[in-house]
Write a structure and sequence with these properties.
The structure is a homodimer of 349-residue chains. Chain A is an alpha/beta fold and 349 residues long. Chain A folds into three domains: 44 residues, no CATH class; 126 residues, Response regulator (Rossmann fold, 3-Layer(aba) Sandwich); 143 residues, Rossmann fold (3-Layer(aba) Sandwich). Helices cover 44% and strands 14% of the residues of chain A. In chain A, the strands form three sheets. In chain A, strands 2-1-3-4-5-11 form a six-stranded parallel beta sheet. In chain A, strands 7-6-8-9 form a four-stranded parallel beta sheet, sandwiched between helices. In chain A, helix 5 links the parallel strand 1 and strand 2. Chain A starts with 8 loop residues before the first helix and ends with a helix. The interface between A and B is large, with 58 and 59 residues. Strand 2 of chain A pairs antiparallel with strand 2 of chain B, so a sheet runs across the interface. The structure holds a DNA duplex (16 and 16 nucleotides).
Amino acid sequence: MTEKKKLTLKDIARELGISISTASRALKEHPDIADETIKMVKAFAEKHHYVPNILAVNFRKSRTYNIGLIVPELVHHFFSTVISGAIDTAKKHGYNILVSQSNDILSDETIACRTMLASSVDGLLISISNETRDADHLKGFLEEGKPVVQFDKVTDDLLSPKVIVDDFEGAYQAVKHLIDQGYKKIAHLRGRREVKNSNERAIGYQQALIDHQMETSEEWIKDCFAIDEAEGYKFCKELMTSKNPPDAIFCITDLVAFGVLKYLKEMEIAVPDEIGVIGFSNWKLAEIVSPSLSSVDQHGYQMGEKATLKLIELIKNHDLENEEIIELKTNLIIRASTILTKKNHATIQ
Amino acid sequence: MTEKKKLTLKDIARELGISISTASRALKEHPDIADETIKMVKAFAEKHHYVPNILAVNFRKSRTYNIGLIVPELVHHFFSTVISGAIDTAKKHGYNILVSQSNDILSDETIACRTMLASSVDGLLISISNETRDADHLKGFLEEGKPVVQFDKVTDDLLSPKVIVDDFEGAYQAVKHLIDQGYKKIAHLRGRREVKNSNERAIGYQQALIDHQMETSEEWIKDCFAIDEAEGYKFCKELMTSKNPPDAIFCITDLVAFGVLKYLKEMEIAVPDEIGVIGFSNWKLAEIVSPSLSSVDQHGYQMGEKATLKLIELIKNHDLENEEIIELKTNLIIRASTILTKKNHATIQ
DNA sequence: CTGTTAGCGCGTTCAT
DNA sequence: ATGAACGCGCTAACAG
């Protein structure tokens, strides 16, 4: 395989007996250039498959049309959905997306940032790790004139736009739905106390209970750490074997809810009749499991779109001082795991 | 936010009263340069946070340390796992990954390729779309001296290394496992006839049946097109309501198997006692559903690693004629959906 | 050991 | 309407 020697402006100029700058301008249809010249140059370029050397262009303009994107975990339904939206949107605007993951480890995140900065992305989209507290490793981007947009998991330590979901409202609606269905003792498997989203959801849960004068209990709130299926299983067991077991469980995320469902199935505790279960994030699998799982949809794809659009806007305007907050509404998806009939309702009471 | 004016080699040279090339070489610890000079330059660079302008370096060396990666679907457990492996591996070797998706549409794939080429990736990792037949849109990479490595879904129309899974063997083992468990009438929900992987799995299925003198029937083979849960449900219904229903089903992928499980559950047909179900790909959810789903693990992460390593090797060696085939062994994961006890075995007979 | 020089390909004044 | 010339920041061949 012999590599093609790439055609340059210089080649075109030489072949056509014009100057390099004329060739350059002709290709851009600069108003100063004669129509005929333009036509001639364009035809020649077309014929010989001239492609500008993007490396030279980038160098000259010091930009790359590449956007960095860092998430905690790539193999994760919600984040991959966000990435999907980001990629599609970026593509539409002529940008590429450079993806990296932090594995929820701050040092990995810091390294990823360095690599991104070194490879000269034009801007950064990031959802911070569970370990991240301050944003020192992100400030380098702004210092170099590269805008940052945070999404989903964000920190206030960085002045930047944030695209987030209304976690409070989503949680509130989920719990209100459980209440409306007739469930009386609603438990919550919550996420980490250091993570804002988790706290928002927990507050939404509590507010809904308070607003509807529902019974509350500290025993019904369990703190997840790994936020996985095993924890859902474990805490569900704890709850159901306690003195005052709940009759509904609101889970910080679907994955945890799957663990809950698993335990309940093993114990032959009927969902939704004996107990209602609702998750958060609306994983693809939520509609596939049996019983299908009610959940709060976060519109991940849309989040990817909005964050990317905002970033591209900032890049174009050299805007490094934007701190707009774009809050997406959640969407309650009601499925079998919480549809309690009146009859069963009575049973519970 | 005022942007820092970046320090250049020229600045260092001027400040230190040396030439630019000396500064450049000193930073690279070139053997010609006096230790003292090296120390001095490095100290100065360190102190003033000198960072080489990567755009200039890339331009000069005509390479970017960026690798393109195109998959049919990003929001897909297997592919996101592959990407995860690719990203981690690339990072280790100083490369970034530029991700794009084709949505299984050839024209999208072609556009993605063009964008990747234009943005000057150093090489390409690709798993082709279901629509892709020939590799004309990929040949441009080789023509420009950029190596390509195909993985999972590959075409022989392009001379390139391929990292694939031994689909035949994986399917064979899955079906053999069903036979060993005592299932007698094994059906297969297969994938598209135009897709190599589907055919390999179908052949593995048939060979296992033949080798063990099992009953076969054309009726037991159903062609999936969308390869989703709905199809699993639909075809399972067709199978179970036919004159000669199977007592086990081997599914082209876990997603289809989930649909199968759903139908069986609705009909209260017991898995694994009345019917065994096995999938392919070992999705995260396979162990979460009830009953947990036996599956064939494809080692997606490892596939991402191997493909990336191979590509980096080709990039470094300017090797464009490699057509090595790296075949990964699958791994049979046995779970509840196929563990038939001896007693039940007798029942079936 | 170090400096000088010559580009890499392109965009952009400044002339003409 | 077009061309000459310069420089972006860095590397490397050549010269001393």
